[in-house]
Design brief:
The structure is a single chain. This protein is mainly beta. The chain is built from 2 helices and 12 strands. A hairpin with a 5-residue loop joins β1 and β2. The longest helix is centred in the middle third of the chain and has 7 residues. The structure holds zinc ion (2 copies).
């Protein structure tokens, strides 16, 4: 990257496609490595309840929380496209609930709003090698994808990560008649959708003070 006389950054074709340079640099754009969720925890004070990894195994993590703060299916078109799946399954955790045990320097980012691949929040986080989606990193929380977690297909795993609701249900490509609450937009912050008719339930919009 070089700068022209007006101070504008100009590509000289030499900059990396994504910032994932090794662990020894202290550039401003690498400061994320020192902060949660990427800060490495001391083994002694991290009680791992679950382990997860990407498809190739380069990225591995542990979770210290038995159950996510919330678990949801998101049917929005961005999730459909970015996951190559009919909907996204997201489990919400604090940034301090995760400890990357391998490959946290081998991550790639993408912000679907700005279509940028530098690390800024919120963004989507992938394994830079096999491209498995790892999580969505928000400003305060992370949304993990439970299918990466070892034991998610056991009765205990399914129970711990069971969803409470569906979001953006009107953008769905499949009907999921599981009896869980369905929301037009964000869960608990938008009108409810009737799972039988697919229509918004009149008067179900939350009141301002409930939001
Ligand atoms: Zn991988
Ligand atoms: Zn979504």
């Amino acid at each position: 990257m070089s700068q022209d006389k007006n101070g504008n950054k100009r590509s000289d074709g030499n900059e990396p496609h994504q910032y994932q340079a090794g662990s020894t640099t202290s550039r401003e754009q690498d400061q994320w490595k020192e902060r949660p969720p990427y800060r490495i925890h001391d083994k002694a004070d991290f009680d791992a309840k679950w382990k997860g990894k990407c498809h190739c195994g380069a990225v591995q993590y542990e979770l210290s929380r038995e159950r996510p703060l919330a678990s949801k299916y998101c049917h929005c078109t961005t999730c459909q496209r970015m996951h190559g799946a009919p909907f996204q399954w997201a489990a919400i955790f604090h940034k301090t609930d995760i400890n990357f045990t391998n490959g946290h320097h081998d991550l790639g980012w993408y912000d679907p709003t700005s279509k940028s691949t530098t690390h800024h929040l919120p963004c989507k986080v992938q394994c830079a090698y096999c491209r498995t989606p790892i999580m969505d990193e928000g400003r305060n929380m992370i949304l993990l994808f439970p299918t990466l977690i070892e034991g998610i297909n056991t009765p205990e795993g399914r129970k711990a990560f069971e969803v409470q609701s569906h979001m953006f249900y009107q953008q769905r490509v499949v009907d999921v008649k599981d009896g869980k609450p369905k929301f037009k937009g964000l869960a608990d912050e938008s009108a409810r959708v009737d799972e039988e008719t697919g229509e918004v339930i009149p008067g179900s919009e939350p009141k301002e003070e409930d939001k």
